[in-house]
Amino acid sequence: MIVRNLTSILGTDRHVTGEAFESRRILLADDGLGYSLHDTVVKEGNEQHLQYKNHIESNYCVEGEGEVVNVATGEVHPLGPGSLYTLDKHDAHILRATRGDMRLICVFTPALSGHEVHDDDGGYPASE
Fold this sequence. Notes:
mainly beta, Jelly Rolls, Ectoine_synth, RmlC-like_jellyroll, lyase
């Protein structure tokens, strides 16, 4: 059994921050589950251009408001508490936090190691 508390992750190597986001990586590849679980905050007013070519990602919004844009179609989908979006076709997308910091619970498969860095396309390399 794995039991963790968000406060135990803050300030560790599982807590990654950037200009536009903060990622608290609760479950990672070394936990051996085949998926990873992240508590991510996208800061209000920020926009990220992303595409995970090697991972499937699902995101469940629990706080704040924003939108996700499907780059291929131009469709804009509003996000708020209770909204879910899944990038099931490795979709290129734009994520925006428009009203308050937007907090997402994110699941990646295959699992991330936690040491990945976004590439030029806004994605991560294939899992090791």
